[in-house]
Amino acid sequence: MNKIDEQDRETKRTDVAEQGPLADSTEEPKAAPVTAPVADDDANAEPSAANAEAKEREESHAEPRSNETAKKNAADALPIGARVSAWAKRNVDHLIGAGIGLVYVLWLLGTARNLGFSRDEGFYFSASSEYERWFKLLFSTPGKAFERSAIDQIWAANHEHPSLVKSLFALSHQFLWGKWKIFEDQSTAFRFPGMVFMGLALWITYLFGARAFSRRAGIMAAILLGLMPNVFYHAHLACFDVPIMAMWIACIFTYWCAEKKGGLGWALAAGVMYGLTLETKHNAWMLPGVFLPHALLIHGRAMATETSKTARLPIPASLLAMATVGPAVFLLLWPWLWNDTLPRIQEYVNFHLHHDYYNIEFLGVTYFGPPSPKSYMPVMIAATVPTVTLVLFAVGAIDRLRVLVARLFTWAGTALERTFSWPKEAPPNDPVQTDVLLFLSLAVPLAVFLLPRTPIFGGTKHWITAYPALAIFAGRGFDLVATRIEALLREKTTWGDAKRRWVVALVGAFTCLAPFVVTRHSHPFGLSAYVPFFGGTAGGADLGLNRQFWGFTTQSLDPWFRENTKPGDTVYIMDTAWQSWQRMIDEKRIPPWLRGVGSPAEAEISIVHHEQHINEVDYNIWTEYGTTAPEYVLTHDGVPIVSVYRRPPGLQRGRARNR
Amino acid sequence: MTAAAKPKEKARQTRAGWLLCAVPLVGLAELVLHMKQTSSDVVPESDWTVAREIVKAELQPDDLILFEPFWTDPLGRRTFGELATMKRSGRSDERRFPRAFEVSIRGAHNTDLAGWKKLKETKAGTITVTLLENPSFTKVIDDTLDLVNPERLSVSRVDDGVEQPCTFQRGSSQGGSTVVPQGLLVPADKFVCQGGHVGVAVLHGLDHHPHVCMYATPMQGASLRMKFSNVTFGSSLHGHSGIQWLVERTPTPDKVAVTFSAFDRLIGTHHHKVGVGWVGFELPTAEIDGKKGDLVAEIAPSSQRQFCFEATTRREVSR
Questions:
Q1: What is the per-residue pLDDT across A540-593, written as a single tens digit (0 to 9) for each?
Q2: Cα angle B65, B70, B76; round to 5
Q3: Hey, which of A203, A290, A296, A572 would disulfide with A101, CB 3.0 to 4.6 Å?
Q4: Is the Cβ pair A637, B188 closer than 8 Å?
């Protein structure tokens, strides 16, 4: 260890001790609150990897400002290699998190070409192309771009959703496809920001897990979040679901940092981040449900005391920033709201408050309106999130609930001046109540789906914002499992630390194997995939769970189209959006010689995407073609996804035969 | 903690420790299941072909073929081709079939065939082909769906007793779009009236199953009269009716009434209540059993446009 490191360690200990939970863990390594395992025998065990790592993290994250300049000057004197090494050591968590995110984005890019376009992607391609016009105008003649006529004409497109993500789609398309030609497919350029958001989600999930629990928990959390078939599917799309998942956890993480570290800078960062989250998707309006109870919990007493003394209500800076800077950022980044602001906001709110209910199948019943089944969310989570991930989540969540309850008992004991038989030792204090924050960030998006009026047509994507917290608890669960395994290995073998660490790493890889294999196999039918304990894709079909929505599977017919169609053949495109069909043709994802048409009557070939409520289309095709027999059925694990009918040769339209 | 409690606590912790260590095994079980579900559980195309040949070898014209679970229906229809006729795949009911071939995977069975007698069971790889006999078979003598052509059917609009004939047209179907729901496709071949039509279509029933039927649009302010000629009657007139599933799933007090008559005598009226789904009715015709004559079906005025029905003359067959 060099001199600078030694200096850092000294100063950081001082700094950390002022910060709360992590500081406690430095002073009391055996009773580390959020970083150390809570089981009694763990406390007696030799310092675990998690404890050592927590110490290292504290050293690398808690930078005392007073020493920064001196340190910088000393660091400048070092050779470049040592400086890079020191920088990497200081930023090791960011490097790990970003590394996981990068690998995942590369995986998404490598598989994007296989995945067709859903209906909503088609609409967003179209809206983003409009916005791109505006950006071109902005870069060429900024004055014109800010004229009302330009704004209203261009930003009217798809104004039921905020503009940030679609603007990123537009800019990505403009530069990464149009100008720099990095991507061959226009669609990949449109989709790329969504993929980067997924990378960001993994990065932040890792950081949160690593800083709240351990680096091992963070790594597992990020990996397990990425290895969910539904998440993997949505991460490919030029849509808002994965971006809002990323921004949801990023906003909560920023708020957590603001609460932990204090200062105007972090508070403003929380405000800006909340504004960006509002500008991503309307799920952000639920975030006060996370922040307000949490802030009340950690500041409530101080606020009450202050209010009684001064008759003024002190509001935490981060909340104040989110309530002021947040909406300002929201307005500033959405040109559609620059004119007729209030009526347009009202229109936006009304659109989502009175959104149409679309059809969705659940346990053999097609739901189309309230009341939504309360079991939908829990069953769908159990059916789509790999079971080992859910078991790890249960382990981690129960552990943290145990700590929370222990804290409650300790607090009650103190308040009532009583001694309870449990807990034997007071759990470590956590002034920022990280566990409560994580539980809120999990519970708030899920709780909405227990309300009878919440539409369920989006399947799992509408509560996707809960998944980072779920994954963080799963990471914590793995941490406990790994600690137990390490303890057993210490007890039963004479293996050294390194060997034991390898075993734990192998167990980690082994634990992730099933989620990886299941996720990889699900592509490009991510929405049809159900976890093996639910019987896989066929099990989902047996149970009457939704198999897909919004026609993205059309592209998977490409090999059949190429073999079995000829130039000029007309195809009834069914649930495929016209924009999606056109993009698939443009990018030669399906044979460019096909001509899409809007009804079976006009088509030589008709397709039907298998969903219960779409059976009507299937039967209408029978009426039109006079046959019940599809020529081809696209399947995933033997389950029909799309049926393809061909008008029988020589059969006049509508002449029923074969009755 | 007392000295006695300590070993107990230790044992509890050890158990909990082992349990935690076993968590990764959940992943292993998941992996093994996944491997099975994506390989040996997937029915190969060849099994479907073998199943078709098994059925084809013994199939009689009146036999039913069905595929279970219902989600395999497209796969079955694809492989069985012309054997999966409209009347089999879009059947009104099971009673009209003397026997049924149930082609099933994953141990699934059709509950409507629960009381049927199993005659034979054959394996085609992962597929089970079961031949069953219907204990309450009612033989179809004449099926009005077969009579929807200008030679056997005349359709008219009746306004205050005044009949206005509807013409038979061979044209294009109407309906279909890239949004759902779309409603019943108006068939290309149909009788066209002022404000209505009659043609054979396939209804998506409230049960989400297909039902071949006459898409006969009730009219507001006028009745729709259909006269099927030269029909042979049996002991009863069986029929089924339904309205487009989207309409049916929101029940209302509305009804559609269809009145059947023959030899200038009333056979009976069936009232289809919105919300009941695909429903059957049976009207006795014992007094005209064996006779041949015109069957008249008249749909009373109604605002329910997407009405579809079928009717057959039948006779019970004792087994």
A1: 999 999 999 999 999 999 999 999 999 999 999 999 999 999 999 999 999 999
A2: 50
A3: A203
A4: no
